[in-house]
TrEMBL record:
Organism: Branchiibius hedensis
Positions of the SnoaL-like domain: 12-105
Protein name, per record: SnoaL-like domain-containing protein
Source domain of life: Bacteria
InterPro entries referenced in this protein's UniProt entry, alphabetically: NTF2-like_dom_sf, SnoaL-like
Length: 119
């Protein structure tokens, strides 16, 4: 099934807004049951693991999320944002892929060095 650009844009917008707002029920509706997440701080497989990882990041590291840009084409979206922590704003890139109306793959990259500066 081909996903159109506007559907992908709406889904990814809901994903980020729900994550930022700690709205876990809505966030869950954006993710495929078998969502595959690979990021700097970990890898998850399945919606339950993904929600647990995003919840942990939101509750223990993230103090805010500032959208800088989003590029969407068909089933793919790249979101450039700053992950705000107590000590830094981490420029972050997130690639999301949509299949059958849900986000099925997520790849995230950022420089985690500032997170370790206080350790």
């Amino acid at each position: 099934m081909t996903t159109d650009t506007e559907t992908t844009r709406q889904l990814v917008t809901t994903y980020f807004e729900s994550w930022r707002d700690h709205d876990w029920d809505t966030l869950r509706t954006t993710l495929a049951d078998d969502v595959d997440f690979v990021g700097v701080m970990g890898t998850t497989r399945g919606v339950d693991e993904a929600i647990a990882g995003l919840t942990g990041m939101a509750e223990h590291v993230m103090k805010g999320l500032v959208l800088k840009a989003r590029v969407v084409e068909g089933a793919d979206a790249v979101t450039w944002f700053h992950l705000v922590t107590d000590d830094a704003e981490l420029p972050t890139a997130n690639w999301s892929h949509v299949e059958d109306g849900k986000i099925s793959r997520i790849r995230v990259t950022f420089d985690p060095t500032p997170l370790n500066a206080g350790a």
